[in-house]
């Protein structure tokens, strides 16, 4: 068993990337190893983005996922691949200027959508029970209309329990 805590950047892609700047956030990951190379994972995180230019908007999401991590190596340096699926609990807020008669109005919405994440990374030991954990994952949230997608690049520490 083990846990990992990571933080980093979240790069919006597709239509999402047209409207939002680079975001940031982090996650906590629990790993239960079925054997030395394969673990079942549980993840919870938080990521946030701001709108580009004059687009006064904020998008936040809390992914709660389950998945698999497969370690490819047996030495100290351990590359891995991962896949997860679960729910993304998201909120959106935008301030709209309605002009002279309307003033500024804030529009907000929240909801939950199914999504997936695929990626990989590596573990590098920095102590007897501690590893440096670096990962990149492509996330797809199946939102109404077009999907919301982003790439995370995260780094942190993984601890054996």
Which short descriptors sum up this protein?
161 residues, OMP/PagP_B-barrel, 1 helix, Porin, mainly beta, single chain, Outer membrane protein beta-barrel domain-containing protein, eight-stranded antiparallel β-barrel, 4% helix
Please explain how this structure is put together.
The chain is mainly beta and 161 residues long. Strands 1-2-3-4-5-6-7-8 form an eight-stranded antiparallel β-barrel. Helix content is 4%, strand content 73%. Strand 6 (104-125) and strand 7 form a beta hairpin. It has one domain (2-160): Beta Barrel (Porin), CATH 2.40.160.20. The model has no long low-confidence stretch (mean pLDDT 95). It has one helix and eight strands, in the order E-H-E-E-E-E-E-E-E. The termini are close together.
């Amino acid at each position: 068993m083990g846990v990992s805590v990571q933080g980093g950047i979240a790069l919006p892609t597709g239509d999402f990337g047209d409207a939002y700047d680079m975001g940031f956030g982090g996650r906590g990951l629990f790993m239960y190893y079925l054997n030395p190379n394969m673990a079942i994972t549980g993840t919870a995180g938080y990521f946030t983005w701001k709108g580009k230019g004059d687009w006064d908007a904020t998008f936040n999401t809390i992914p709660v996922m389950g998945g698999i991590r497969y370690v490819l190596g047996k030495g100290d340096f351990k590359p891995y691949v991962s896949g997860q699926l679960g729910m993304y609990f998201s909120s959106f807020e935008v301030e709209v200027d309605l002009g002279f008669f309307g003033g500024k109005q804030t529009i907000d919405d929240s909801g939950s959508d199914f999504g997936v994440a695929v990626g990989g990374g590596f573990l590098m030991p920095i102590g007897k029970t501690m590893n440096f954990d670096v990962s990149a994952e492509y996330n797809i949230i199946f939102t109404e209309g077009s999907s919301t997608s982003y790439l995370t690049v995260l780094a942190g520490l993984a601890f054996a329990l």
